[in-house]
Amino acid sequence: MDHYATGIVNRSTLSADLPRAIDLGETERAQLVAFLNTLSSEDPPRPVSLPPKTITWGVTAQAVAATTVSQKDRRFSPGAILLKAGEALRILNDDTRTHNMRVDGPNMSFNSDGQNPGDTVTIGFDRPGHYDIICGIHPEMRLSVDVTSARRR
């Protein structure tokens, strides 16, 4: 806690999201440390020296091609996508920050956990409807996905 209150060294790798000083009283510090001690993870962050991770969820054999969306500068780009049922969406974290992807929609709920820079998540959409995707780390990041019925041949 002392390090974050007074010992942060300004480096080029320092996250722009990190406050430069944290001013907490002793009681607040003790409460924060007690809270942090309750946290655990089955999937801790990967060292940047490891290759990027690819997550695939709900993708069927018919979803050969995927539309790609970027996660950068705390936003999805583009911010809205139109797909047909059976198509897939690939989201690439090409930022320097860790992001996350949460999907809520008709009969679909998905959470990617942490996506380190370079990681991709590919999601198949098999049902028409509207899907909202947000970054659970930066909730202002929002992506609107509309899935239409696939055309019959």
Features:
153 residues; mainly beta; Immunoglobulin-like; 5-stranded mixed β-sheet; 2 helices; 10 strands; ET_Amicyanin
Give an overview in words.
It is a single chain. With 153 residues, the chain is mainly β. It is 10% helix and 38% strand. The chain has helices at residues 2-6, 26-36; strands at 54-57, 66-72, 75-77, 80-84, 88-93, 99-105, 108-115, 120-124, 129-134, 142-148. The strands form two sheets. The chain has a five-stranded mixed β-sheet with strand order 1-8-5-2-3, with no helix packed on it. β9 and β10 (142-148) form a beta hairpin. It starts with a helix and ends in a 5-residue tail after the last strand. It comes from Microvirga makkahensis. It holds the Pfam family Cupredoxin_1.
CATH C-level class of the largest domain: Mainly Beta
Structural class: mainly beta
State the helical fraction: 10-25%
Poorly predicted residue ranges: none
Query: What is the CATH superfamily of the largest domain?
Result: Cupredoxins -  blue copper proteins
User: Distance N terminus to C terminus?
Assistant: 63 Å
CATH fold-level topology of the largest domain: Immunoglobulin-like
* Shape designation: elongated
Mean pLDDT: 82
Number of strands: 10
Beta-strand content bin? 35-45%
Helix/strand order, N-terminal first: HHEEEEEEEEEE
Strand order of the largest sheet: 1-8-5-2-3
Q: So how many helices?
A: 2
Question: How many structurally independent domains?
Answer: 2
